[in-house]
Write a structure and sequence with these properties.
This protein has about 220 residues and is α+β, with helices and mostly antiparallel strands. Helices cover about 25% and strands about 20% of the residues. Strands 1, 2, 3, 4, 5 and 6 form a 6-stranded mixed beta sheet that branches. The longest helix has 21 residues.
């Protein structure tokens, strides 16, 4: 058995190659651009996975640490016990909102919430007149199998009136298979966000299965 806390970036990349994680759309070349605060909008989107049923959804969620290749700096005091699982955007998009306004969008991978967390956040939301409640982070030391067991035989609840604007108020959330989600999103970067997310989830499961200790 291998301890995944000792895995190097090269080993993580090799594990990802096993699931063809690098067979993705090409990135654009780096650019130089400058935007002041009145001409830039920064946002984030997520592909939300219901791990227990291998489906993609649009529900209350939290970010999911995964073995992702990236170029962000490590913590100053990073040690051999540092986690190979990170929360980083899998894609970043630059899109014009208007001729003079730039939109920068970061795409992350997330998961639906377990029953006890859902219940706690719903209770707090009612107590605070519908105010947004930030969910706790994915628990350190928990494996994906352990997380999936918490959702056995259960679909996440759908929360109404959670859109941030008039357009999102019209959205409906459904659980879709990874294949169906990619088909519906075909031709967009969102389809590849789903693919990258699912393949990284499979890679994390493989790493955990081959390991004795998992420390996040």
């Amino acid at each position: 058995m291998n301890d995944i806390t000792q895995s190097s970036p090269e080993q993580i990349a090799e594990a990802m190659d096993d699931t063809h994680l690098h067979d993705n759309p090409s990135s654009h070349l780096p650019v130089v651009a400058n935007f002041d605060s009145t001409h830039l909008v920064i946002g984030a989107g997520v592909a939300i996975f219901h791990l227990a049923t291998s489906r993609v959804s649009g529900y209350r969620n939290r970010l999911l640490p995964l073995p992702l290749c990236h170029r962000q700096p490590e913590a100053h005091h990073a040690s051999a016990a540092s986690s190979p699982f990170v929360v980083e955007p899998v894609w970043t998009q630059l899109m014009p909102v208007r001729p003079t306004v730039q939109y920068m969008l970061f795409w992350y991978i997330a998961e639906t919430l377990p029953p006890n967390t859902e219940a706690l956040l719903s209770h707090k939301t009612k107590e605070e007149n519908g105010a947004y409640q930030k969910p706790p982070q994915f628990p350190p030391g928990m494996t994906l199998v352990e997380r999936m067991n918490l959702d056995e035989g259960r679909d996440p609840p759908r929360h109404e009136n959670t859109g941030v604007d008039e357009e999102e108020a019209l959205y409906e959330s459904h659980l879709l298979s990874v294949e169906d989600a990619r088909e519906k999103l075909r031709g967009t970067i969102m389809a590849d966000v789903v693919r990258l997310g699912w393949e990284a989830i499979c890679t994390r499961q493989k790493m955990e299965k081959e390991s004795v200790d998992v420390w996040l």
